[in-house]
């Protein structure tokens, strides 16, 4: 194994990526498969997961992908998902908590119901799934090679920006705080816990702003680095945290946002497009 492979390889590791059929989840799943991991993809839409797993396996990479459908919207669904993972592997090197949803509306019409739904899936489900899978993570963990958890937060959870997605922004702030709490608690279990705080990437969730070339151009124009995120940006960050190079990092909220979180501007993440 050469120098770079030694630092960033995930060869032989087993990973679970929730919401791995689309958007950032798929970018992460692709990176892990390309890096040599066995990746289990799960989302509410089983057929979409199967299609993505087939496409990833067709890459002829050193890793592999498999999938099943799972619903994180209820405790029963989370427990069933956890049991299915445990039936497939007796150890889990990597857990990526990516599943989430959003809701956007003007302040005057923002519904009360948009809070419980967003907080349940984006925060409560993430916590309960992580709690359930700790035994599998501990089985893979060691001092020199800890198990890894990556939670997907958002730049909107870091800055006081809502862009109409009030409950989403607050839920991602909670994801960041929970990441730090678990990073502290899980260190003695030899499990690292970190989060990405992505800026705008092209995905189904951001399709309202990034589905067209004109939209991408408008979003890029307000980003300090002048573009939206690319799959390689998330891939590189993932392989860093999951490989040997990231084994001494825990409790971190890593901005992958093109500089939005350190910008002094006030134009928001998504302009009117």
Short recap of the structure:
With 273 residues, the protein is of the alpha/beta class. The chain is built from 9 helices and 7 strands.
Search tags:
globular; 273 residues; 9 helices; alpha/beta; seven-stranded parallel beta sheet
List low-pLDDT spans: none
What is the percentage of strand-forming residues? Answer: 5-15%
Q: What is the number of strand segments? A: 7
Count of the domains: 1
Tell me the span between the first and last alpha carbons.
Answer: 47 Å
Mean pLDDT: 93
Biggest sheet details: 7 strands, parallel
Using only C-alpha atoms, the radius of gyration works out to: 18 Å
CATH 2nd-level architecture: 3-Layer(aba) Sandwich
Coarse shape: globular
Strand order of the largest sheet: 3-2-1-4-5-6-7
CATH superfamily: NAD(P)-binding Rossmann-like Domain
What is the ordering of alpha helices and beta strands? Answer: HEHEHEHEHEHEHHHE
| Number of helical elements | 9
Question: What would you say this structure looks like, in words?
Answer:
By secondary structure, the chain is an alpha/beta fold. Helix content is 43%, strand content 14%. It has one domain (3-262): Rossmann fold (3-Layer(aba) Sandwich), CATH 3.40.50. α2 (23-34) crosses α9 and α5 (113-140) packs parallel to α6 (166-186).
């Amino acid at each position: 194994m050469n120098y770079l492979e030694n630092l960033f390889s995930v060869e032989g590791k087993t990973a679970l990526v929730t919401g791995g059929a689309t958007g950032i989840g798929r970018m992460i799943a692709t990176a892990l498969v390309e890096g040599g991991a066995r990746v289990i993809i799960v989302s509410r839409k089983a057929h979409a997961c199967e299609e993505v797993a087939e496409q990833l396996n067709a890459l002829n990479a050193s890793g592999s992908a498999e999938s099943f459908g799972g619903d994180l919207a209820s405790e029963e669904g989370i427990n069933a998902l956890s049991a299915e993972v445990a039936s497939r592997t007796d150890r889990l090197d990597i857990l990526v908590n990516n599943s989430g949803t959003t809701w956007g509306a003007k302040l005057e019409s923002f519904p009360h119901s948009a809070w419980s739904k967003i907080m349940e899936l984006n925060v409560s489900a993430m916590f309960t799934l992580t709690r359930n899978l700790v035994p599998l993570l501990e089985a893979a963990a060691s001092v020199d090679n800890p198990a890894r958890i990556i939670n997907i937060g958002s730049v909107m959870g870091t800055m006081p920006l809502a862009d109409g997605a009030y409950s989403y922004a607050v839920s991602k702030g909670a994801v960041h705080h929970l990441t730090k709490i678990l990073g502290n608690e899980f260190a003695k279990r030899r499990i690292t816990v970190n989060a990405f705080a992505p800026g705008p990437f092209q995905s189904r969730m951001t399709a309202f702003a990034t589905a067209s070339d004109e939209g991408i151009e408008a979003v890029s124009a307000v980003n300090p680095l002048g573009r939206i995120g690319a799959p390689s940006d998330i891939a590189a960050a993932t392989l860093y945290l999951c490989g040997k190079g990231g084994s001494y990092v825990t409790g971190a909220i890593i901005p992958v946002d093109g500089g939005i979180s350190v910008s002094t501007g006030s134009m928001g993440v998504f302009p009117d497009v």
